[in-house]
Design goal:
There is one protein chain. Helix content is 45%, strand content 13%. It has 114 residues and is an alpha+beta fold. Strands 2-1-3 form a 3-stranded mixed beta sheet. A hairpin with a 7-residue loop joins β1 and β2 (38-43). It is globular.
Length: 114
């Protein structure tokens, strides 16, 4: 794990609920608003992906690094699901894409469906 991820992970371990993520996974809460955040258990190796690291960095800047509970990612839930989809399908474009490109591709794909 990178230093930033370790810092966020250990700061968030202050009060993990008794229900833990399964082995090899990390619990994250995703959403712009803490009251409406959705819980995800994601593969721990995703934390090393550059786009995931960028989301964590931006979330740390927005929310701070000291908090209670699991990792928090302050982003649109559908965008996070899109990123997970790219990572789960081992889509090669996900490894070369920057976060702004991901957001642009996501929003373009969604606007073409409406």
């Amino acid at each position: 794990m990178t230093g930033l991820v370790k810092k966020m992970f250990w700061c968030g371990r202050k009060s993990f609920p008794s229900e833990m993520a399964e082995e090899g996974h990390v619990r994250v809460y995703v959403g712009k608003d803490a009251d409406e955040a959705v819980k995800f258990d994601v593969e721990a190796n995703y934390l090393n992906h550059p786009m995931f690291e960028k989301l964590l960095q931006l979330s740390g800047e927005e929310l701070g690094y000291s908090y209670e509970g699991a990792l928090r990612i302050a982003c649109d839930i559908d965008l996070f699901l899109y990123l997970l989809h790219l990572l789960k399908t081992s889509n090669p474009s996900a490894h070369y894409m920057q976060l702004p490109d991901l957001m642009s591709k996501f929003h373009n794909a969604n606007s073409s469906h409406h």
